[in-house]
Specification:
Length: 182
């Protein structure tokens, strides 16, 4: 038991120390985005955060380049943030926002299409707010679905644990009964 606790402590502390290194953190965040359910949830959340912040800044009259530079700081995933850095450089060179994001980031295609439509219509701030609302709702639905699936899974896990305890107790009672009958 002490060995398990010691190993768990070493693994957790080692991971924390490694996550402080930018190179490892970048690799870790990239791998997290590839995890089936968690990665989708994180990508939806980061997309919503990016779109809401950029839309708010553009609506307030901040120029696109300055706004996109400011938005980079609200992104929590290092891998997405690195793509944003490259997209910001492309924007500085005169590339359209949706093209820069499409070539440099892992944002969902629907978000990129909506941003493209907003740019072409000249209503980028409104479209970014719509992207934010869409992805916030999608994130909430994903979390609700996950919680809906988690309840039966936890119930089954508790049932297995209780069943295991009952089997252990019954085995002990039956073995005492066998000893008494001999």
């Amino acid at each position: 038991m002490i060995t398990i606790v010691l190993v768990a402590t070493l693994v957790i502390s080692g991971t924390v120390v490694m996550l402080r290194r930018p190179g490892f953190r970048l690799i870790f965040h990239r791998l997290v985005l590839r995890v089936p359910i968690v990665g989708d949830l994180i990508l939806q959340q980061e997309t919503a955060r990016f779109a809401r912040t950029l839309g708010t800044l553009l609506k307030a009259g901040v120029p696109l380049f300055q706004a996109s530079t400011s938005v980079r700081t609200v992104i929590g995933n290092c891998y997405i943030a690195k793509g944003m850095d490259a997209a910001i450089e492309s924007i500085r060179e005169g590339v359209a926002l949706h093209r820069a994001l499409q070539s440099e980031t892992v944002l969902p295609p629907i978000a990129l299409r909506m941003i493209s439509v907003g740019e072409e219509a000249g209503k980028l701030d409104r479209m970014l707010m719509r992207v934010a609302v869409t992805f916030e709702q999608q994130t909430q639905r994903s979390v609700d679905r996950l919680m809906t699936l988690l309840t039966p899974a936890l119930t089954m896990m508790i049932a297995v644990l209780v069943g295991g305890l009952i089997v252990t107790v019954m085995d002990a009672v039956l073995s005492i009964n066998d000893l008494a009958s001999q």
